[in-house]
Fold M48 family metallopeptidase.
Amino acid sequence: MRGSIAYAGQRIEYRARRTARKTLAISVHPDGSVEVVAPSGTTPVVIEQRLLSRAGWVLRQRRYFEQFLPRTPERRHVGGETHLYLGRQYRLKVEHGEEERVRLTSGHFRITVKRQPVPDRVRELLDDWYRGHAERKIRERFDVVAKRFSSILPVTPSLAIRPMRRRWGSYSRKGRITLNRDLIRAPLPCIDYVIIHELAHSRHPNHGRAFFDLLTQMMPDWERRKLALERMLA
């Protein structure tokens, strides 16, 4: 069942399903979607009444998740444009040569192409470079940070690194952490913050008091790192 309610001038769309459970639960997922799990026989009127009573909380949860959305504008991939790597800005220098490659030297991304330098090919080469470095560096940081959870996590979650359109990271019920490949553009302390955030979800799936207590215990300055991430990759 799908539906929507109006609250404070905004429309909240939701998906509802009924199970054998005895109580009604409302969840807001990191992508902003709202799910209601209700006991069998619960009427649509009851579901929407409960949603209205919790609408303020739903909107607050959505605003919280919006802080993690990548908002960097579309890049044109032309000479002189700047791109981030581990928190530092590097200017593109596009050159013609016999061997296509990307090098990071003297404050520049030096990109060599065989034919006429066109933005699409420059983008492909730079994306390949980012992909390889993200796989190596983010996994390296994950292994370091995950060791701090070894005493409280019986099994370290598996890790996937891939492009994510709306989130910096996620934790699945199957025990997998997914991190946004674009995090390779952020400083290492910010990457570590996202890793800690998702590892904390392996103990506490929701953003309740227990979750934030654990997050603060493992990273007392997480709020400063979170703000730095939002400002740099906004």
Remarks:
- Residues 2-66 form one domain.
